[in-house]
Amino acid sequence: MAQFNEAQMAEFKRLVARYPEGKHKSALLPVLHLAQDSFGGWLSSETMDYVAELLQIKPIEVYEVATFYTMYNLKPVGKYLFEVCQTGPCMLNGSDDVVEHIFNTLGIRPGETTSDGMFTLKVVECLGACGYAPMMQLGKTYREHLTKQKVDEIIAECRKNAAVNN
Amino acid sequence: MRRKLLLEKAHVPGIRTYEVYRKEGGYRSVEKALKSMSPDEVVEEVKKSGLRGRGGAGFPTGMKWSFLAKPEGVPRYLVCNADESEPGTFKDRYLMEFIPHLLIEGMITSSYALGANTSYIYIRGEYAWITDILEQAIEEAKHNGWLGNNILGTGYSLDLYVQRGAGAYICGEETALLESLEGKRGNPRIKPPFPAVKGLWDCPTVVNNVETIAAVVPIVNDGGEEYAKIGVGRSTGTKLISACGNINKPGVYEIDMTISVEEFIYSDEYCGGIPNGKRLKACIPGGSSVPILPANLLLKTAKGETRIMNYESLSDGGFATGSMMGSGGFIVLDEDQCVVKHTYTLARFYRHESCGQCSPCREGTGWMEKILLRLDRGQGKMEDIDLLWDIQRKIEGNTICPLGDAAAWPVAAAIRHFRDEFEWHVLHPEEAQKRNYGLAHYADPIHVPVA
Question: What pTM does this model have?
Fold first, then answer.
């Protein structure tokens, strides 16, 4: 089973140290982020059990949290996760067209992953970028003022990065 | 030139770094408070300022602070609510991204006022890069002696941490936020007890919005009375407005609360009017939860007075003909937009974000979403409109937290003001798929008297 490496364990310790004695469960959300980032972009039940063990809490305490928050992926996702906002202000500025364009280009609907495991499309609710709509989250940052051309460029950029990293 | 208190320096090159921020007068409020004021005196200045919570509810901050219980030997906490998730709202993000030290400074001064020695900034999980920016700012502040033990040799100590959420609008509700910060599902708590008595880990806690905490900096620097001179009536100081939708210049604007809504939308200093020569149809002036208003009621109150961008004027007329200042998320809809569809996306949002504890909200938000979807697709019946009205009435006021109300109000207001557009969707299902209903009687031109 996968375990945190040395650097990840140091980060784990930094997170847990932020709370008073005995309140280490508070680290659960940040530790789940760390685990998701460390183990392939999603949380398997093995990963969640591992987090429970590290934090000395019951596995169910981890499951109930992991299933509540939308940022935790409970099944595998592609190497690049496109999270396209579709709430009111983004809709006004054409988020439907962005989703449609991704389907036309990559052949995936929301919730689907390309067969090569490269891209997953997810539609999400308001990410707080309403003035820069339409937008998507990609990794740690936002891609805003999306157009078809911009989406094409992002896809090309991802493919290029994947090729370099392989 | 109108006065800016928060964003005046936001675009000074390098302001994100400690050196530049300090050189521009940063951290003066910490020096002043810690060296020459007692904690109670700081609270007193905030009371005098008339500052109202900038997260949406508009509750007087000084009063909230004075409710904080102070039992001997029990730690107290200040938690900053940076879980900005109300559709249309992106002002806190802007402040944190461009001038992060302002929030750190406000956190230190406010924590001192409240007697908190450990404070947290709870930020929405998606703002991952801003978490890095804030942590960097905290490191710099610590390195320069503004955080940690015995700050400025005054004996006051403070540790400050940033906690990331993980995608849940409900965590902007203060008790859900505290649950989340304790590592649990973001289920709101039943109140009372209020956080001021039993908050984080059952200790007395104050939860304040980012903008509220940032506003403490100018209040302490200039004095509460000076701050209260800006604005009008009970809308003192400046307010950040995040403007989006169909406008030429979307973005974050700091306003003093004396300008008219018309000026805000049409002047080049702010939104710069509506693109492509389109006309104004409707606007949600304070984040997706507040009632949508048709253009005629937005620009003038039902009494025919010019509507001003402040708490009192935006809510003039109650929900019958007014709206709310809310979080300052200003969403503009032009004549090409469909109110039914827009309301549907909001209903879907609230269904997605309901925590599921209270039946009226858990079930009702789903029903509203389904009915609005079929109306939007031209598959609705006339009775659906009354059914929607009935459902929202049964959600409002029947849940333990305000998410239920927040989900009900946009639907209620859309039907109240745009019922004809809903009916048209039922009567002309095929046409409704091809084109938008248009402006009808409720919209601009700007100076149409209220019917």
Answer: 0.96
